[in-house]
Amino acid sequence: MKAVIPAAGLGTRFLPVTKAQPKEMLPVYNKPTIQYVVEEAVSSGIDDILIITGKGKRSIEDHFDRSFELEYFLQKSGKTDYLKEIESISEMADIYYVRQKKQKGLGDAISCAKKHIDGEPFAVLLGDTIAQSKIPCTKQLMNVYDKYESTVIAIEEVPDERVERYGIIKGSKIDNSLYRIEDLVEKPKLEEAPSNLGIIGRYVLSHEIFDYIDEVPPGVGGEIQLTDALRLFKESYGCIFNGKLHDIGNTVDWLKSSIEIALEHEDVKEELKEYLMEILK
Ligand code: G1P
User: Fold this and answer.
1) Pair 138, 2: CB distance under 8 Å
2) Residue in 36, 220, 215, 12 with CA at minimum distance from that of residue 137
3) Three-state SS for 88?
4) What are the residue ranges spanned by the domains of the chain?
5) 48 CA distance to ligand 1 centroid (A)?
6) 203 in ligand 1 pocket by Cβ < 6 Å?
7) Which of the listed residues 137, 163, 166 should we mutate to test ligand 1's pocket, taking the one with most ligand atoms within 8 A of CB?
8) Beta-bridge mates of residue 153
9) pTM, entire model
């Protein structure tokens, strides 16, 4: 299976940080956010990844490319740990790039992948969340796809105050973690939301999605919404994600996630904890 990672957005929620750098390259502790997402795809067994980019996103390509100068320098100065890490980033997967020419929404970005995908089911991973779990989130979806051979998307219960930020599903429960989807709404008002089950940005889609994207008119925000195209599937499933999600879609959530993820690193954990307690006194 191939994966598609849309990374063409302007990152307006992060301005001015994102004026001259892509939001996908913002660090979460010691790695750019997009590296976590690529790692999830790779640990799900995917080695062919298409990143949908746009203007001003060159540093993403540089990040996953080799850097001979840097590797030479690290080798010469005996910094072998760094060298190994740097080399492994460029060897993780075959990464391809295509540019979305106009900012017409997530659905439109996904449609840029049509030729590369070539009729197969494929995974989509959005960069606004880092998903941590024993079985990677995308792999959890691939397992459901194998069983039902239908589109499946990862969902999670979201608190009331966040419902408006997500695509929300209406579904009938099949078991503790699986729903058959009856309807989907992109960013509904809380009173209009059919449930509190939010789409968290991981999908395994059948290739028919490309026809459906062509059919839907612009939706919320005047954009071609992936959620609207998903409504056209006769059969699709929502799978409750089993793991921990870190939202990095806006500055406060990104900061919280950065701290939480830094606290998972033994070498800085104690120092950071002490510091946080000190400044919160
Ligand atoms: C997108 C999707 C939305 C989903 C969300 C998850 O919205 O359109 O359905 O719930 O990602 O992060 P965005 O956050 O890009 O506006």
Assistant:
1) no
2) 36
3) helix
4) 2-247
5) 23
6) no
7) 166
8) 203, 238
9) 0.95
How much distance in Å is there from the Cα of 261 to the middle of ligand 1?
A: 22
State the architecture of 2-247 in CATH terms. Answer: Alpha-Beta Complex (3.90)
Q: How far is CA 54 from CA 97, 108, 115, 125, 165, in A?
A: 10, 12, 17, 17, 23
Residue with the two structure tokens 């598609």: 4
Q: How confident is the model at residue 127 (pLDDT cuts 50, 70, 90)?
A: confident
Locate the ligand 1 atom nearest the alpha carbon of residue 129 and give its number: 12
Which one-letter amino acid corresponds to residue 41? Answer: A
Q: What's the pLDDT tens digit per position in 1-15?
A: 999 999 998 889 999
Q: What is the CA radius of gyration of the chain?
A: 19
Q: Each residue of 250-274: pLDDT tens digit?
A: 999 999 999 999 999 999 999 999 9
Structure token pair of residue 174: 């099949």
| Burial class of 120 by CB neighbour count within 10 A (0 to 12, 13 to 18, 19+) | exposed
**What does the pLDDT average to over 60-78?**
95
* SS3 state at 226: helix
